[in-house]
Amino acid sequence: MKTITVGLAALLLSTAASFAADAWKEAEVGGTKIYTDANGMTLYTYDKDEKGKTNCYDKCATNWPPLKAEAGAKADDEWSVVDRTDGTKMWAYDGKPVYTFVKDKKAGDISGDGVAGVWHVVKAD
């Protein structure tokens, strides 16, 4: 029984890690390594957010969709999960919630970088 329990725990941990790995990936745009969602769409941070807290709701979240985290998603290195006031969860990089931008139409677009001086591409270190 102990072997089954240990095996099940390992399977659950690897499944949670795979949710994290499937949520984002690294890409190179114009010689700069950035993070994108699983579809290759650029991820951004918002200066008005706080570490571990999003301040982007309503119209903001319509234009800047949060990178949703699955229920049960777990932190992975510099990636963490942030609770939203609507009960959903989203991913954060280095504590800062991350978003895509509705005006980015294809993988590699970075049209949201610098919008209103408060939106920035998430660069991979």
UniProtKB/TrEMBL annotation:
Q: According to the UniProt entry, where is the signal peptide?
A: 1-20
Alphabetized UniProt keyword annotations: Signal
A family per Pfam: Lipoprotein_15
Q: Which GO terms describe its biological process?
A: alkane catabolic process
Question: According to the lineage, what is the superkingdom?
Answer: Bacteria
Repressor as a keyword of this entry, yes or no, is no
Q: What is this protein called?
A: Lipoprotein
State the organism named in the record.
Mesorhizobium kowhaii
